[in-house]
From TrEMBL:
Keyword annotations from UniProtKB, A to Z: Acyltransferase, Transferase
GO MF entries: acyltransferase activity, transferring groups other than amino-acyl groups
Domain (N-acetyltransferase): residue spans on this chain: 2-166
Source taxon at top rank: Bacteria
Origin organism lineage: Bacteria, Pseudomonadati, Pseudomonadota, Alphaproteobacteria, Rhodospirillales
Record's protein name: L-amino acid N-acyltransferase YncA
Presence of keyword Transit peptide: no
Matching Pfam families: Acetyltransf_1 (PF00583)
Coiled-coil stretches noted in the UniProt entry, renumbered to this chain: none
UniProt cross-references to InterPro entries, sorted A to Z: Acyl_CoA_acyltransferase, Bact_Acetyltransf, GNAT_dom
UniProt entry tagged with the keyword Transmembrane helix: no
Amino acid sequence: MVRIADARPEDARALAEVHVAAWRETYAGLLPDRALDTLSVPERTALWRRVMEGGGWVIAARDGGRIVGFVSGGPARDGDLPAATGEIVALYLLKAHHGRGHGKALFTAACRRLARDGCRGLALWVLAGNPTRGFYRRRGGTADKAEDDVVAGTRVRAVRYVWPHLPG
């Protein structure tokens, strides 16, 4: 049974392990192997610890106590979005847990958290080649913008999905 709950700073290493593994699973073929090979669990551990100790939030999916996915967000960073728009900055789930409802549960938990924080709309960015883009479309997201970005030293195309109202 999966349990969705706030992560704590002591979960930073487990979050980092999921982050690195999910990048390698999801972005194989989209990013060069050298970029994926250099991903660092210690660097991501420090990142997630800083996020949580700095007042940011992370919600984790635990299966049998083990973190298998997570979501993090906050106020939208893009200046062209309406006021009170929230953003999902990261949503990662180990591939072995796809199709079990864990991603939907994390997405829903993030929307609830953003609503509690006063957000009314939602935005997120995803790589154009990411095979999980359909997940966001099925939840009512509309692609409204695409931009080139550099991820792990590689130029990629990213697509922004928006929801004028937070999904229920």
